[in-house]
Structures are given as C-alpha cells and as structure tokens.
Automatic annotation (TrEMBL):
This is Spermidine/putrescine transport system ATP-binding protein. GO terms for molecular function: ABC-type transporter activity; ATP binding; ATP hydrolysis activity. Residues 7-237 form the ABC transporter domain. The keyword Zinc does not apply. Belongs to the ABC transporter superfamily. SUPFAM superfamilies: MOP-like, P-loop containing nucleoside triphosphate hydrolases. One of its GO terms (cellular component) is ATP-binding cassette (ABC) transporter complex. It comes from Paracoccus laeviglucosivorans. The keyword DNA damage does not apply. PROSITE patterns: ABC_TRANSPORTER_1, ABC_TRANSPORTER_2.
Length: 362
C-alpha cells in the first residue's frame, strides 16, 4: 500500500492581478522526501513555496497537508509543523541563544531548551561556537546555526529558499552534503527552492523543473538527466546535444529523424511519433564517441570539426561543429581521449548508439 502524500497540490494556480505566476500545479510530496523546486528566475518557485507556507493563498486549486486543505489556514493553526528556514539570525543573541529562541517562545524551560539547543549545535558540528556572537562566525558557520535554529523545533517539513546562494563554491559543496545527510538522518521533509542544477541534482530525491509558472518535468535526478521530457528541459540542463528535425523512416523502415546535420536512427523504444512531425533528438554529451576516421560499424555518426576544449578536473569537454554549423559537445575522461590527436580545426567523426538517443517534444 502506498503512503498518502504529506503534501499535495491539486490544480493550484496563483495570479497576481492579471499576471499568472503559477499555472495549475499538480504535485504530491511524500513524508521524508527531499524535493527540489528548480528553474530560472521568475518561474514561480518561491511563490509555490510561499503558498505551501501559508504566506500566499492560491487563486485556484487546493493545497493539502496530511490530507487537510490548508489554502486559507494560517501556519500557526496547522497540525503539521512546518518551518521556513531563515538565514537572518538575531545579532543581539549569541549562537546558542539564537538556536533556543523558538523553544523559549514556546514556553520550554531554560534547562530543557538549552540541552536541546546544544544537541543540535553538536549535531551541526558547531558546539564549540555556542557562546560566540553571530558577527564572529563565518558564512558556513552562520548557515549551520540557521539550520540548527530551524530544526530545534523538530518540524515535519522544512522549507528552504536558496539557502546556499550567499556561500562560496567550495562551501556550497560542503553544505550540500551536510544538508543531504541531515535530511536523511532526521527524515524531515525538505522542500528546497533553487535555480542551481548542481544543488537540486546532488541533494534531492525528486526535482520539479519549472518554467514560466508551469511544471515542465517532475522526476528523480537520474530520470530527468537521462530522459528530459521536453526540449526546454534538455536545453535548461545543458548536458545533451539536441538535433532538431522531422520524423521519418529510412530505406529499411527504421524510425529516423531528418536534421540539418544528417539523418539519425532513433531509439527502438518509445513512441516513434508521426512521420513529418517536428521533433528533437537529444544525446547526452557523455554518450557520444569521437573517432579520427569515419567509423564503419556504427548506426549514427556525423562529421564535425573541433572548435574548442575545456578541462574540468577528471573530464574534458570537447566542442565540435558539424557542416551545417551545429555545435556538438562531447564529454569524456582523459583516458577515453588518450588515443586522439585533438587539434582545433581538425575534422573528426562523432557517433552514438540509437539507444543513447532520446526523443523530446518541441
Ligand atoms: N506579490 C507579488 N505581486 C506581483 N507579482 C509577483 C508577486 N510575487 C511574485 N510575483 C511575480 O511572480 C513571478 C514568480 O515569482 P517567484 O518569486 O515565485 O519566482 P522565482 O522562481 O522564485 O524567482 P527567483 O529565483 O528570481 O526568486 C515573477 O514574475 C514575480 O515578479
């Protein structure tokens, strides 16, 4: 038996005057899930989170929490404790006083609340800073204090809006693993708003990709990465090469796509679509092979000139351009590229298996 969702959005719409910020969202969030809402600026992520928090009322539709409609229920009168993580710490309180503040407001006794606050500081590995002023903390330490302060009340749901955006790149990566581990250990449901693909994909169990107030795709990071549902998602993730064209059949009757860069055989699985229909084939940049000479035993290949390269740690991204002017990117480890004399301007042949292709809607 599947568990009833902790949160559900049913046909939720939010309009500000005549402007629709969120268009008909249907979404279930399970108890204990780490869900990321991701998309570019203005796509409606924060508005969605604010509706869940009770800071905005939906214009249409129903939001349920543990089965109960909460559209017009202020957060303090709900049965399910939910906390909006705020990075704004009280500057006039020290670290442990910041963490215990919410417990004090709830009337918990001094000894108990101090013990609870210290447990959370310990858990966040910042117990040694308990007596420090907030101004004496680094960005990462403040972030941990803010998390401890949100979690000390043991909410069922934690809402986070770009919590790592002010941190430098190295700290961001460290905090991602802190957050993920914490979420796993506590089983608290995290709803996490970010415009960063790396944050969403490294931490979340499921990612909701939004664009202009609409949900474009909901899925596990792996499913979205491997099978983007639309051209928008493939473009947004930036990890696939996209060949646009028209669906057709080759001389042997196999489903193909006719593009400016050539005709390519499509994956055997999935609906082949209607001949003549406009569509796009996506191929992950890690799934493309590079050959010095035209390969004989492959089903899909295209000649392309190397136009650039970029090294990112263990892998390299090589940029090519086909005769029709389309850019094609290939990402490989240095070992995989070892046998090739990679020179800018040189002609190569790129290939991929039809099963590595994926058809998306325009
Ligand atoms: N109170 C409001 N009144 C009018 N328009 C609003 C209001 N709040 C948000 N909007 C508009 O709704 C749209 C969605 O805003 P929202 O803050 O949800 O986007 P977002 O995806 O979180 O973006 P960002 O990453 O920039 O925070 C934006 O175009 C925004 O200008």
């Amino acid at each position: 038996m599947t568990q009833a969702p902790l949160v559900s959005f049913e046909g939720v719409v939010k309009r500000f005057g005549s402007y629709t910020a969120v268009q008909k969202i249907d979404l279930d969030i399970s108890q204990g899930e780490f869900l990321a809402l991701m998309g570019s600026s203005g796509c409606g992520k924060t508005t969605t989170l604010r509706m869940l928090a009770g800071l905005e009322a939906p214009t249409e539709g129903v939001i349920r929490l543990s089965g109960q409609p909460i559209n017009d229920l202020p957060s303090w009168s709900r049965d399910t404790p939910m906390v909006w993580q705020s990075l704004a710490l009280f500057p006039f309180l020290n670290v442990v006083e910041n963490v215990e503040f919410a417990l004090k407001m709830r009337g918990m006794g001094k000894a108990d609340r101090r013990r609870r606050a210290e447990q959370w500081l310990d858990r966040m590995q910042i117990a040694e800073f308990a007596g420090r002023n907030i101004s004496q903390l680094s960005g990462g330490q403040r972030q941990r204090v803010a998390l401890a302060r949100s979690l000390v009340v043991e909410p069922k749901i934690l809402l986070l809006d770009e919590p790592l955006s002010a941190l430098d790149a190295a700290l961001k990566v460290r905090m991602q693993s802190v957050l993920k581990n914490l979420q796993r250990e506590t089983g608290i449901t995290f709803v996490y708003v970010t415009h960063s693909q790396s944050e969403a994909f490294s931490m979340a169990d499921r990612v909701v990709i939004m664009s202009r107030g609409k949900v474009e795709q909901i899925g596990t990071p792996r499913d979205i990465y491997r099978a983007p549902r639309s051209r928008f998602v493939a473009d947004f993730l930036g990890s696939s090469n996209i060949f646009s064209g028209e669906l057709a059949r080759d001389a042997q009757g196999r489903p193909t796509i006719v593009t400016d860069s050539g005709d390519f055989i499509l994956p055997g699985v999935g609906a082949p679509g209607i001949e003549g229909q406009k569509s796009s084939l996506t191929v992950l940049d890690t799934r493309m092979q590079v050959h010095a000479d035209a390969p004989q035993d492959v089903q899909n290949s295209v000649a392309a000139r190397m136009v650039g390269e970029e090294f990112t740690g263990a892998t390299a991204t090589i940029y090519f351009e086909t005769q029709s002017g389309q850019e094609v990117r290939v990402q490989k480890t240095h070992e995989e590229l070892a046998g090739l004399d990679l020179q800018i301007g040189q002609l190569f042949h790129l290939s991929w298996s039809p099963s590595d292709g994926h058809l998306v809607n325009e």
